[in-house]
Specification:
Layout lengths: L1 H6 L3 H24 L1 H13 L2 H14 L1 H18 L2 H28 L28 H16 L4 H17 L5 H26 L3
Length: 212
């Protein structure tokens, strides 16, 4: 039961992760309320028009694409099966779940919120509600959500490489703003969602490992 996952969690760890989520969501709300989405988009958009910025945006798109991440997880699972490594297969399956769950949650929220993407030219606070128009699916950033879900999960298993995992997630997230595909608050929202998914998966794993 999900309630048991948190009940058995280390209080300090639970508090630290909860604080991070509150700070990220607070930053998202602050960016929206202060109207910084548009100014940040313009500032980073100028950089996105440079050769390096354009390459950053393109690479971030492919690295953070859910389909690519799912394919990577499947390939990793296949390799683990070939190598007869149950541990690596378990890791790969968990990565698959992290991307799938965060990706599905993002799509549900996107369709319900209906926020205009920067490329539409509409105001950053334009919300249509339920819509199937992809130009109105800016919030939250799916690339950011799946990338941070993966980073959060992998960092719990291999904390010594946490800087690498989170660094790649940040690279992908900034690339989505640089390319003009998302606002900063979209990215922060995706970050919060991804962290939540990855950490909940970790709490579930920890609860399972507690001796009966």
């Amino acid at each position: 039961m999900p309630a048991n996952w948190f009940a058995q969690a280390d209080p300090g760890l639970l508090a630290r992760r909860g604080l991070v989520l509150v700070l990220v969501l607070g930053a998202m709300a602050g960016v929206m309320l202060l109207g910084w989405d548009q100014s940040l988009r313009v500032a980073l958009g100028h950089f996105g028009k440079t050769g390096f910025g354009h390459a950053w945006g393109i690479s971030a798109y492919w690295m953070g694409l859910g389909g690519v991440q799912l394919a990577g997880a499947v390939a990793f699972i296949a390799l683990a099966i070939w190598a007869r490594s149950l541990r690596w297969r378990s890791i790969g399956i968990s990565c698959l779940w992290a991307v799938a769950v965060s990706g599905i949650m993002v799509q549900v929220i996107k369709h319900l919120v209906g926020r205009a993407r920067p490329r539409t030219g509409l105001a950053a606070d334009t919300l249509l509600g339920l819509t199937m128009n992809s130009d109105m699916h800016s919030f939250p950033s799916g690339h950011t959500a799946t990338s941070f879900a993966l980073a959060a999960w992998l960092a719990t298993r291999y904390p010594e490489y946490g800087v690498v995992y989170y660094g790649l997630a940040v690279y992908i997230s900034l690339g989505r703003i640089i390319s003009g595909s998302h606002y900063a608050s979209d990215v922060l929202g995706g970050m919060a969602l991804g962290l939540m998914v990855g950490w909940i998966m970790d709490f579930r794993r920890r609860a399972k490992e507690v001796p009966a």
